[in-house]
Specification:
Layout: H1 19-26, E1 33-36, H2 43-51, E2 55-60, H3 63-68, H4 70-75, E3 80-84, H5 90-96, E4 102-108, H6 113-116, H7 142-148, H8 151-162, H9 167-178, H10 186-197, H11 208-218, H12 221-235, E5 236-246, H13 249-262, E6 268-270, E7 273-276, E8 283-290, H14 294-299, E9 307-313, H15 333-338
Parallel strand pairs: 1-2, 1-4, 2-3, 4-5
Antiparallel strand pairs: 5-9, 6-7, 8-9
Helix pairs in contact: 1-2, 8-9, 8-11, 9-10, 12-13
């Protein structure tokens, strides 16, 4: 296939991490249908379109990403369709399009560079902007969580989703500060984290883990990921492939656990109960684990923590959703209550 030329489009500011490896894992072929569940700037979609005469449904909950993909849709000459939605709903999205089975799904989990670099979105402590972090613009914002959660619940959120060891101290400092004035901006929160952890020099910024926790919570990223994995099992045709790129241990643990459990062929053995044989595997591993090479990290430092896992769908019946806790999605009761209206 020849390259797709997009005339007059804005420069692409988001670099799809492990793009070639993820697309190779999907092994695109002519006439197939693929889902790009995190369209972003269209990096994976563009590569798929160039490798095969295939069709793609691109999904993104960010309306700005959908609008920014208009030029690629036009250049694809009818082979690319964009849908504003969540990849956790991809089963419903494909059903609404009259699609029963797809040949491949790629997911790039987390926040995009475009979102991080836009101060008005409130994802980054590097710029001053509203403390928002909502990918889709709906539901409670990060500021709502910071100002409305109790100190205990805020500490639990930062410790669990941010893996921050000083979560209790940060939560205490946040509550003390919000008693004086509501915390509404990114730099306001970042300075609070700095007062607790000290300034960063060559080490990780002191606000990094707190911002990560709030972003994951606001967008229900871990729940969305697991729902997408369950949906992928439902909609992938036998022989279809799933490729997932994750960026931190919480995400990767969910993907790793899901694929390991769905590809298990050995019996479940417990000293507390009789041995039971696992259901027929629904996936076969294709890429157990791949990380960026030195060249990619040099070009795109944000790729350094990325990991790719990929698997091929068997013809065994889908097992359907099960307890999210078993896959590493934490349950935070207070967060469930405050996010109930999302």
């Amino acid at each position: 296939m020849t390259a797709l030329h997009v005339e007059g489009g804005a420069p692409v500011r988001h670099i799809s991490v492990l793009r070639d490896e993820a697309v190779d894992a999907l092994a695109p072929v002519d006439g197939a249908l693929y889902i790009d569940g995190t369209f972003g700037a269209g990096g994976y979609s563009r590569a798929l379109l160039e490798m095969a005469d295939c069709r793609i449904v691109g999904i993104d909950r960010d309306r700005e990403a959908i609008a920014g993909g208009a030029s690629l849709v036009e250049a694809s000459q009818g082979r690319l369709m964009l849908v504003n939605g969540r990849f956790g709903d991809l089963k419903e999205i494909t059903a609404n399009l009259g699609v029963e089975r797809v040949d491949g799904i790629v997911l790039d989990v987390g926040v995009s560079s475009m979102q991080i670099d836009d101060a008005h979105r409130g994802f980054s402590f590097r710029f001053d902007g509203p403390l928002d972090m909502r990918m889709g613009g709906e539901g409670p914002s990060a500021a709502d969580l910071v100002n409305d959660l109790s100190e205990k619940d805020l500490a639990a959120l930062i410790r669990t989703l941010g893996e921050e060891r000083r979560a209790n101290a940060i939560a205490k400092a946040i509550v003390s500060e919000r008693n004086n004035s509501r915390i509404e901006t990114t730099l306001h929160l970042a300075k609070i984290c700095e007062t607790v952890l000290g300034r960063a020099f060559d080490q990780i910024n002191p606000a990094t883990r707190t911002f990560q926790a709030l972003r994951i919570a606001v967008n229900d990223e871990l729940g969305e990921l697991l729902r997408a994995l369950f949906a992928a099992e439902e909609v992938l045709a036998p022989g279809g492939r799933l490729a997932v790129v994750s960026f931190h241990s919480l995400e990767d643990r969910i993907v790793k656990t899901f694929l390991a459990e769905r590809s298990r062929t050995t019996p479940n053995v417990s000293r507390h109960a009789p041995a039971t044989f696992a259901a027929a595997p629904t996936f076969i591993p294709v890429v157990r684990s791949a990380t960026p090479g030195d060249d990619e990290i040099a070009r795109n430092p944000r790729s350094r923590s990325a990991r790719l896992r990929a698997a091929e769908r068997t013809d065994a019946p889908a097992r359907g959703p099960s307890d999210s806790l078993a896959y590493g999605v934490p349950h935070l009761p207070a967060l469930t209550t405050i996010m109930g209206g999302q």
